[in-house]
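Weekly puzzle thread! Below is a chain. First person to post its structure in token form gets bragging rights.
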Amino acid sequence: MFTGIIEHLGKVKRIKRQANSATVTIDLGRLSNDVKRGDSIAVNGACLTVTQITNTEVSFDVSGETLRKTTIGALKVSESVNVERSLKIGDKLGGHFVSGHVDGVGVIRKMETEKGQCTMWFSVSEGSVRMMIKKGSVAIDGISLTIVDLEDTLFSVSVVPYTLDATTLGLKKVGQGVNIETDMFGKWVKRILTTNNKTGSEITQEKLAGKGFL
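Winning reply:
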């Protein structure tokens, strides 16, 4: 479990590809002092398991499924990545509950910069949009952000200068892909509402009230 608050920008040092998997080595810098084999670490929002540690460099074995379904498969040597260690009991929850299980890859469609913020628009699948609401939470490359607007298969977030400086979002360009994880509470609500409902999966105010959410 993670919070979506990025702790460090790591740097990809090596990528060793096999037939249907890969080993990715990332320099975690100061964070490596508190990391051991078997730990879960979110890399650009994807939960990976530490398999090897050499000084400040940490290696992860990545499955074919993760390579196909996330942007981890497109990483390049020297590229910066968002890093967050798993949440410990008693830690502050500064963002929102993030599982590290990426729902899909979104694409940056537009960046509107103005004083004090940057509004970024992303295109995602219809399935991902159905799990979003205005002012709801979303994790983009592991960063906890708040949805501003929704339009068909597009959504926007407002990013402050600190987040642009402290995460990979400040390095991104229009057309690049990002990992998207929708709010897990929304997934549970949808699951409850659609259980034994063979007429459709649309969430309505009446359904929410009937299930005790309103």
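Puzzle host: Confirmed. Bonus trivia for everyone else. The longest helix spans residues 184-194.
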